[in-house]
Protein 1
Amino acid sequence: MMKLDEIKNPEFKNYINLAYMQGENNNYDAVSKIEDDMKKYIEDNCFIISVEDSKPVKIPYGNDNEYIVPIFTDEREYILGMQYFSLNVMDENKDYIIEKLDYFKKLKEDPNFLGYLVNISSVSYIINTSLL
């Protein structure tokens, strides 16, 4: 089992920054290529997934019952995320697991699941279901 301090994901953080930069420049071909790279990366790597009672934490987002699930790329982002949760009184009973994102396969089948929110306290990025 991996430990929290063993999870790094600098390449994924770079993909997020590149996607934002190319998006701001309206370079959608480059964004599409970056998203393809992200998809491959997601399949092969573990992230820190926020859980409560062994179930993914669901943060309401959008309309009706739509939600996102917070994940973190590394220990620093996880600690910052927990500080963010505590500011918003959302930190009680929260824990984490270190797994690949397909660990919660049923999420993808839920029409209310919009995706994973990466690093809630810093440059947030939503991994939408098309990348899973």
Protein 2
Amino acid sequence: MTLTTTRISTKVAIRTAREYLRVSKGKGRTARSITDQHRDNIATEKEHGPWTWGPAYLDTGSASKYAKKTRDDFDQLMADLESGAFGKPGDVLVLWEISRLSREMGVGTRIVELSARGAYLIHITSEGESGRTYDPRNYADRHALQAGINDAEREAGRLSARTLRGVNSAASEGRPHGRIPFGYAREYEVIDGRPRCVRQFPAPVDGKLMAELFVRAAGVRDNRLGDESVALMYTNPAGGDALPEPVYAIAQGWAERGIANASGKSFHDGNLREMLTRPTYAGLREHNGVLVPMQWEGYEPIVSRELFDRVQRLFADPSRRTYLDSGVQHVLTAALLCDPCSGPITVRCRKAGVPGYECAKKGCVRVDKAEVDQIIIGDLELTDPETGEALPPKLGVILAYLSAPHRVARLRERPADGPEEKATRTELATLRDELEELETAPQPKTARARIQRTTDMEELEQDIAVLEAKLTKLTTPAPLGGILPDDPSADLVAWWKASDIHRQRAVAALLLTPELLGQVRITPSQGWRDPVTDRLTWLTAA
């Protein structure tokens, strides 16, 4: 009999472990805790390994279904589990705790199912003294994983409801909540064991910057309009007839001055434009789609309601870009249209470098630029060919219109009260009296009566806000009133010659409309020597 010796291998198969490391990045937290998770995961290998460590999935963001930002590496993990690119059967997905994976039951269950299908294990480091490894193919392990995900989803729902309840409570009382807007500072007191905001006021430096932003965007003298008092003043060095400044130009100026946000980054025009539309700077809040005043004595606005409304009207005006754009070079291009296609007009040089107004869309029409400028604006630099002496300027349509004092006075004046304005003022006064009666009346004795009184007051506030906005719109002077010089006796021809291209362009864009001088459209040529006057069609409102 021959004896043979069989050598039994004691080598243990080594699995590949891949971590999913995630931290919720927020105030007071950084991605540094990812390092802590990784250290604990490495330590757990002594008990459950040996493992070789493959590339980790790293994310900074919330795992809650209420989160608004995507998690790129989480999406990659899901794709790898789906395709089998995660690894070989028996490889391990390592998590610090089950809630790091997902707090949404459907997503978590899908991960468990994909792991079972690929024969991958799931290890939870924070369970027990050294962690626990689950096999999703085992019904008991699968149930335990799903129960953990269900608990995480329930806790996320509780946190969301608690946060939303606090926000709604602050909003209903008109108190500030959430992040502090740029330009403001807050004062807190401990009430019922918790810090509560008792005052929001303009910050000494940043508050003045916000006042500057509104004043420059509106092109007004300062942030006090009418008789309304505001907490912090800023006076525009350009004076009272300044043009509204482009937001991008303000952003560039702030960057050059080193003005930055709380993160140390410069503001771009999108940031400033969003800030200019926030009612909080005028002491307003949105309630059921209507802007109403903050009913909170600790709130100080930075700008007046009238200034805020003026900026919103400017942003809503489509003609605003026609004279505030950075690359403007010609006065009339924004005010002219191609008659055949209604397209915009541009300036192009074709014949011997002579500029002409031409259809920018299809090239339908072309006309000599100098001749059109003479008709619409005029010749302002005329000289006597024999003596060389300056002659009085030959006024075109625009300057002839502005040279009539009675027309300019009408452009400057605030519209007189008509029947609609008077009816609005009467209704507004009645509602304000009703609101004052409710505010000064004795406190109701029953809870139901107090709730009804609060509801009535909120409805009155909304109705008053709607009427105030309507009255502001009805009594707003023409835009030219804020561009022309304040002095009624000023020489507007000399003022025009001294004005920059943006101011001239603004006047042309506002005058050459169907409601005033007429919309100018250029028609195609009908013959070799068509007069330019025959090529211009003036469309006026009926």
